[in-house]
């Protein structure tokens, strides 16, 4: 592909960056809303904004209404589509959801301001991806982005991805196709080999590339991916980039420019965005992402960036941080025994937690979560390869397996009778998928003034206003009146 093409940028700071580096809990609505108008001015192609997991975090940790968060930020960023990522198999709860619940979730996120949806099935099931794309379109999503999730195993070969990309080529409701690499496993050679198959499947549609800096290869992969035909890359800003997150946006644009490509980002506005999140990191004591060394061990366990952080934190809470490397080694073994699932939400959580149990307990597989039992029951789709027969027999002979085998997906049936018909559909969906006391606490907090953001962009709101006025020559005079006092600004 010839150089000189325009490359577009999807920003992942508030969703994947926050999840990969700050366990999805680092940002509040005021933190994001304070910088949203500036982010809108940067000119991102879209904002990878939320997921059902992030919506649950808003309620559980911050007592914030996630629907209000979507509405407020969407209103503050009218020029930038907000995006949600989903597997289409569940909403918030680990229990799989019926299609009526998923359809309602899609309809509500669209109603409240989400214009774009990234769909990534953990099994790369082309039929299910097409069905979910059609549902998203019916429920009002403007831009449907269908993803194939990259992994490496005896099953997940380049031929596997060529065939799965081809199976999506005739999807009528797919606006864009993207290659999603949650483990940062793509190499330069791999993206070169895979790109022609994705280009062919996308046809005239836009092709996106998403990777993580977990082992330091993503910046190189982006450059080679763009050369091979990808038109959009996913980056993050300031302290929420690098590390186990995405490549940093300013570095990425420099790399693109050095190779003859162009972009439309306002880099001055982007610098303000980066400094805002840096100030938040300082104020909250949150760790910034830092460049990572190449680490071949990741090709064994393949845990995505967010799960690496979560696993380390879990072991620290158990006061067993010294077991981290042993757990990573056990992940490799557990994944093989479970049929080489791709390590994305929610399966990555099951594999990592089982590996930790196996290392801590006196005997492997002596303690198994309900979610892992349900994985072996097929509630999360068929595994890519057969599971280990001895392990499967042991898991499915556990006392809870029979009861879990009869577990029904979350459904809307009887929901209004349980929760009442006077509540909004948004509240109904939260109550259906979250503990009631957490939703009650969120509702109780609604009447209270929102806390201020941990940091404000530009240091001072007045300085930010004057800087913005200086950038807009069409404005010659501004009058501000408050509490009986008036300030008049005129351009010289």
Give an account of the 3D structure.
- The protein is α/β, with parallel strands linked by helices.
- The protein has 2 domains: 8-284, Alpha-Beta Barrel (TIM Barrel), CATH 3.20.20; 298-397, Conserved carboxylase domain (Cyclin A, domain 1).
- It is built from 22 helices and 10 strands.
- The chain has helices at residues 13-22, 29-42, 52-62, 66-76, 99-112, 126-138, 158-167, 188-202, 218-228, 249-258, 267-284, 298-301, 305-317, 324-337, 347-360, 370-376, 389-396, 399-405, 415-419, 425-433, 436-444, 461-470, and strands at residues 8-11, 46-51, 82-86, 114-120, 143-149, 176-180, 206-210, 232-235, 477-482, 485-490.
- Strands 1-2-3-4-5-6-7-8 form an 8-stranded parallel beta barrel, surrounded by 8 helices. Strands 9-10 form a two-stranded antiparallel ribbon.
- α1 runs parallel beside α13 (305-317), α2 (29-42) runs parallel beside α4 and α9 (218-228) packs across α10 (249-258).
- The radius of gyration is 23 Å and the shape is globular.
- The protein starts with 7 loop residues before the first strand and ends with a strand.
- 46% of the residues are buried.
- The mean pLDDT is 93.
């Amino acid at each position: 592909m010839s150089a000189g093409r325009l490359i577009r940028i999807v920003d992942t700071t508030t969703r994947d960056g926050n999840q990969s580096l700050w366990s999805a809990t680092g940002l509040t609505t005021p933190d994001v809303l304070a910088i949203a108008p500036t982010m809108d001015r940067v000119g991102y192609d879209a904002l990878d904004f939320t997921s059902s997991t992030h919506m649950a975090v808003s309620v559980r940790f911050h007592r914030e209404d996630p629907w209000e968060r979507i509405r407020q930020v969407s209103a503050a960023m009218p020029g930038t589509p907000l995006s949600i990522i989903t597997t289409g198999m569940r909403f918030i709860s680990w229990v799989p959801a019926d299609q009526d619940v998923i359809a309602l979730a899609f309809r509500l996120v669209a109603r409240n301001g989400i214009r774009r949806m990234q769909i990534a099935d953990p099994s790369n099931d082309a039929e299910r991806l097409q069905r979910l794309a059609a549902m998203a379109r019916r429920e009002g999503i403007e831009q449907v982005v269908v993803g194939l999730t990259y992994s490496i195993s005896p099953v997940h070969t380049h031929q596997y991805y060529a065939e799965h990309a081809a199976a999506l080529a005739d999807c009528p409701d797919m606006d864009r196709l993207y290659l999603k690499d949650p483990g940062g496993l793509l190499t330069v050679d791999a993206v070169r080999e895979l790109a022609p198959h994705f280009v062919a499947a996308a046809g005239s549609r836009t092709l996106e590339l998403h990777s993580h800096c977990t082992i330091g290869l993503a910046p190189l992969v982006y450059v080679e991916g763009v050369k091979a035909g990808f038109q959009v890359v996913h980056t993050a800003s300031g302290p929420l980039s690098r590390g186990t997150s995405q490549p940093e946006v300013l570095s990425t644009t420099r790399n693109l420019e050095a190779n003859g490509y162009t972009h439309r980002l306002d880099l001055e506005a982007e610098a303000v965005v980066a400094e805002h999140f840096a100030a938040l990191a300082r104020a909250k004591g949150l760790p910034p992402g830092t460049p990572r060394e190449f680490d071949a061990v990741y090709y064994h366990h393949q845990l995505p960036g967010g799960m690496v952080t979560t696993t380390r934190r879990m072991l620290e809470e158990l006061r067993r941080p010294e077991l981290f490397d042993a757990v990573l080694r056990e992940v490799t073994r557990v994944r093989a025994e479970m049929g080489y699932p791709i390590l994305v939400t929610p399966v990555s959580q099951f594999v990592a937690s089982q590996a930790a149990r196996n290392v801590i307990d006196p005997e492997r597989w002596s303690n198994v979560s309900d979610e892992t039992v349900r994985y072996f029951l097929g509630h999360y789709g068929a595994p890519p390869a057969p599971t280990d027969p001895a392990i499967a027999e042991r898991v499915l002979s556990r006392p809870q397996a029979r009861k879990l085998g009869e577990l029904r997906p979350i459904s809307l049936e009887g929901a209004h009778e349980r929760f009442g018909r006077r509540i909004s559909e948004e509240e109904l969906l939260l109550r259906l998928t979250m503990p009631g006391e957490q939703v009650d606490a969120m509702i109780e907090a609604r009447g209270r003034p929102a806390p201020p953001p941990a940091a404000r962009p530009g240091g001072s709101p007045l300085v930010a206003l004057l800087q913005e006025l200086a950038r807009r020559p069409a404005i010659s005079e501004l009058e501000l009146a408050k509490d009986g006092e008036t300030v008049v600004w005129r351009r010289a």
